[in-house]
Amino acid sequence: MSTGRFALPAALALAACGPTVAEGPPPQPAAQVIVTGDGAHVSMPARVTAVGSEVPAAPDRVWAVLGDVYRELGMEPSADAAARVMAAEPRAFTRRFGGLPAPRLFDCGRGAAGVDLASTYRIRMSVRTALHPSGEGGTRLETTVEAHGRNPDGVDAVPARCLSRGVLEQAIATRVTAKLF
What is the DSSP letter of 150? Predict the structure, then answer.
């Protein structure tokens, strides 16, 4: 009996049992639904991603001004000089931060009446910027912002994840560049 004509179909069938590689972006986690006394609040999950920016200056020069930029934006920095990482102590605010309305900075979802929750929630955020050398003596800033919002009017307020809109990350890079040039 000849096994040659069954070899290719058998190999294809066995290959289908192996690991697969998904193409495209990873699946989006489900929305967060918070049911409270005043209705249901829906919050989309926050994927924390680093926003990268190139600065045409050496990492030493960028590091020298990064703490001042954090302070100018109203954040108290803590530094890990060896790792070239600056982080802000967790900071809470309501309605505005750095002169900007909270909905410009964050998407915390929408309330039952369609209200942008970032405009009413007390938002607690943490910020972290890492410096990496880039080509031709420049520096790559990678800033991540994590935030959660909470309804300040209720004792049963469950925190909602808030997605950064990238405005604060860009402000850090812009101010660093402005200080250097």
Answer: E
